[in-house]
Write a structure and sequence with these properties.
Elements: E1 2-5, E2 12-15, H1 27-38, H2 43-50, H3 54-67, H4 82-90, H5 96-106
Antiparallel strand pairs: 1-2
Helix pairs in contact: 2-3, 4-5
Protein name: DUF2089 domain-containing protein
Organism: Microlunatus panaciterrae
Pfam families: DUF2089 (PF09862)
């Protein structure tokens, strides 16, 4: 049994609900997906919205697709070189964890 409630009015609904594939996404992923859809799949627009380089935007979108079970391909390093990956970490566009995974894929 699942209970859902509205924080502002106090209304509650209880029942057995089927979860959708988008329900497990966090706010960051939902925002990324909204921008991508609103821009009709324009990766450059997603790049601008995220404030990252094009390869990083592609990587983040590929990770989103993977979380949704839509990747269909093994994780690709999004065409980034070692230098680009390190540069993205230095700029704060990639986390060290993301960079480590990408660097391992290059080997």
């Amino acid at each position: 049994m699942t209970r859902l409630g509205c924080g502002s009015c106090g209304t509650e609904v209880g029942g057995i609900f089927a979860s959708c594939e988008f329900c497990a996404l966090d706010a960051k992923d939902l925002d990324t997906l909204r921008v991508f859809l609103a821009s009709r799949g324009n990766m450059r627009e997603l790049e601008r919205h995220l404030g990252v380089s094009y390869p990083t935007a592609r990587l983040r979108f590929a990770q989103l697709l993977e979380r949704l079970g839509l990747s269909g391909e093994p994780d690709q390093p999004a065409g980034m070189t070692r230098e680009q990956i390190l540069s993205e970490v230095a700029a704060g566009a990639l986390t060290p964890v993301e960079a480590t995974r990408l660097l391992q894929q290059l080997s």
